[in-house]
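Checklist before submission:
- one chain only
- standard amino acids only
- sequence pasted in full

Submission:
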Amino acid sequence: MKKVILISSLFAAMAAGNATADTLLGFKVGADYWQADTSGTFANVGTAQPDYNFDSSSQGSLWVSFEHPIPLIPNVMVRENRIKDDFSVASTSGKADLSNTDFVLYYELLDNDLVSLDVGGAYKLMHGSYRFETTPIVETEVDSGVVMAYANAMVGIPGLGLFGFADVMAGLNETSVHDFQLGLGWHFDGIAVDTRVRVGYRQFNFDVNDFSGTNANLTFDGVFAGVELDF
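Returned file contents:
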């Protein structure tokens, strides 16, 4: 009888463990629309940096993340950021393209209805260019990367679905590069998919020297709105 009880207890514990693991497995996708103003300057190394006139333009981000219960192995997020703006200087026009992809590895230190905290590291891979509409066209590729620290924090109000959040990336090898978001969101529980709607402010500051052969001090900032689906 004792063996039966022991075996039953072991199966119950395994079932509970599997149920917990299922609740900890997560797959998220999301998108943001960002209305950003642009300011700053850039130039090839060794040349003067003129004052550019930039247009305000819409930017966007798409991301996907996977979270799991395996100890020591980090969770993964990949985020694609479209960051482009037209400019003019003297009688010349062009486009500054600082689009990039974030590859993020992070750990969940806290995860409950009241507060959550993720920390880790990231690599921001630039894949843009500076393009001058001259004859012939002059274009300089921006294709290096930035190693960054990463943190995401959320504080919620249980029962209301309302939460505040901060998402921060800070450059390590390029210490004047940062990309952060601050805002409010609403969480809606679903049967198969949970939904989060977010609004806030985002700033991307790209202050570098001799990065892909260029110097730059550019800032994109403004309000954004987005949605995230949690499977």
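Reviewer check: The longest helix spans residues 2-24.
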